[in-house]
Amino acid sequence: MTREYRTQELAEAAGIPVRTLRFYRERRLLPPPRREGRIAWYDDQHLARLRTIAALLERGHTLGGIAELTAAFEKGRDVGQLGELLGMGWSDETPVRLSPEALADHFEGEVTAENLAAALDLGYLAADGEEIVHVSRRLLDVSSALVREGVPLAAVLETGRRVREHADALAALFTELISDHLGEEAVSRLRPLAKSVVEAELTMAMDRLHQRRAPGTDSPQATQPSQTPREPQPPQMPSS
């Protein structure tokens, strides 16, 4: 059964002052509590929302931005508008619509408030009405496959964040290369070439790393015995 909390109890469970809880409620960052006379009763969904807010604040989001995300989940928005809200385009990937239950099934019970906040922060998830929208079928399939293999979802999301940093740097590198030599209008047209280069380099890099880490394999230098060049010795004179 869902646990219920009074105001003080919820604030303690979330690790925030009561005045902060009331401020969030006034800003409509929390759904209204259940009222029983003058007593406000909150439940585990309110606690999960508070933990999500805390996680987003730690990642640098403003309360105004969090309020927009909250409104999107509660009221639903056009998928394109949500893409702009989360700072991520939707043109190259196929979004996937999921119910909350289907999302949980993909990740075998690891859809926690913290992981949800991280996925929102990365722009992997958005909402459209009562459905959750994942930004990319490919990313959803890969991340859920890793979780099924035993990789924690939190680790998958953290790796996704680090990959995003490198991807942004690569995008800037190719955009600068193409725009400097061919003009800004050529960037979109030649984007497939950049994707091919990155895919080829990543494949070769993983092959090199695998060879270095494979059991029983060493670098060519390690397989050869270390020999120090000897000084030439004068010929030995026969003894008399």
Secondary structure: elements and pairs:
Layout lengths: L3 E2 L1 H8 L3 H9 L7 E3 L2 E5 H15 L4 H13 L3 H7 L10 E3 L1 H7 L6 H10 L2 E4 L2 E4 L2 H13 L3 H30 L3 H4 L1 H23 L6 H4 L17
Antiparallel strand pairs: 1-3, 2-3, 4-6, 5-6
Helix pairs in contact: 3-7, 7-9
General description of the model:
The protein has helices at 7-14, 18-26, 44-58, 63-75, 79-85, 100-106, 113-122, 137-149, 153-182, 186-189, 191-213, 220-223, and strands at 4-5, 34-36, 39-43, 96-98, 125-128, 131-134. With 240 residues, the chain is mainly α. Among the domains are: 1-75, Multidrug-efflux Transporter Regulator, Chain: A, Domain 2 (Orthogonal Bundle); 157-212. Strands 1-3-2 form a 3-stranded antiparallel beta sheet. It has a 3-stranded antiparallel beta sheet with strand order 4-6-5. Strand 5 and strand 6 form a beta hairpin. Helix 3 (44-58) packs across helix 7 (113-122) and helix 7 runs parallel beside helix 9 (153-182). The termini are far apart. The relative contact order is 0.07. The model is unreliable at 86-91 and 219-229 (pLDDT under 50).
How many extended strands? 6
Rounded to an integer in angstroms, the radius of gyration calculated over CA atoms is: 28 Å
Report how far the terminal alpha carbons are from each other. Answer: 106 Å
| Low-confidence residue ranges | 86-91, 219-229
CATH architecture of the domain at 1-75: Orthogonal Bundle
N to C succession of SSEs? EHHEEHHHEHHEEHHHHH
Q: Strand order within the widest sheet?
A: 1-3-2
Structural class: mainly alpha
Oligomeric form of this entry? single chain
Please state roughly what percent of the residues sit in beta strands, choosing from under 5%, 5-15%, 15-25%, 25-35%, 35-45% or over 45%. Answer: 5-15%
